[in-house]
Amino acid sequence: MEMSKISRESLMTLEAYHKARPEMRKQAIEERRKRSVRLGEHLNLLFESELLMRYQIQEMLRVEKIFDEEGIQDELGAYNPLVPDGSNFKATMMLEYPNEAERRLALAKLLGIEHKMFIQVEGQPRVYAIANEDLDRTTADKTSSVHFMRFELTPEMKKSLKAGAQMMVGCDHKEYPMHVETLPDDTLASLVNDLT
User: Fold this and answer.
1) With 166 labelled, which of 39, 104, 113, 159 sits at a CA distance of 20 to 30 A?
2) 152: β partners
3) In 34-141, where do the E strands start and end?
């Protein structure tokens, strides 16, 4: 069973969203906190969810004052691919270097890092990210500071996670070898919710 994508009918009108926004924003901030996994000081992996994408779409419609059908469909088309499908995790990877000179240097050294990101369910093989399916974000001499990725899970992996297995999140790029051995309980519980 595939998780449902966000439909045009399920979105709030701009007026309704205006009223619901403070509460929805609070939920989105909490969800983002729960679903962010930091690897070292420069890499943040945000596991996306239906709630985060719904909030993002509603925010875009609000900020851009989008009322027309075509504009709404464009936003749905942009963000729906980041909603997990029930057999995978979808994530936004951000390489964060506040200093621009340092960032330029790092992005040149981290070429291909998006293909070195992995998750590993306890007792199972590593699953590497399928990155940037919408468009290539890397040039010949540097990687992008933002990548979108999908981690596909086997039925055994899903079963193990639902039964309480732990999951490692990591990167094995030679310039940034880093992993988080165990995820906080609320992070893991939130991710397991994505699986159907």
Assistant:
1) 113
2) 88
3) 36-39, 43-47, 88-95, 117-121, 127-128, 130-131
* Neighbouring C-beta atoms of residue 117, cutoff 10 Å: 25
From first to last of its 196 residues, what are the pLDDT tens digits of the chain?
Answer: 445 689 999 999 999 999 999 999 999 999 999 999 999 999 999 999 999 999 999 999 999 988 889 999 999 998 999 999 999 999 999 999 999 999 999 999 999 999 999 999 999 999 999 998 766 666 778 899 999 999 999 999 999 999 999 999 999 999 999 999 999 999 999 999 999 8
Cβ-Cβ contacts under 8 Å for 93 (sequence gap 6 or more)? 43, 44, 45, 46, 114, 117, 129, 146, 147, 148, 149
38: number of Cβ within 10 Å: 14
Q: Where are the domains of the chain?
A: 8-192
Longest dimension (CA), the chain: 50
The pTM of the full predicted model, rounded to 2 decimals, is 0.91
Asked if residue 51 lies in contact with residue 28, where contact means CB atoms within 8 angstroms, the answer is yes
Residue 13's contacts (CB-CB under 8 Å, 6 or more residues apart) are: none
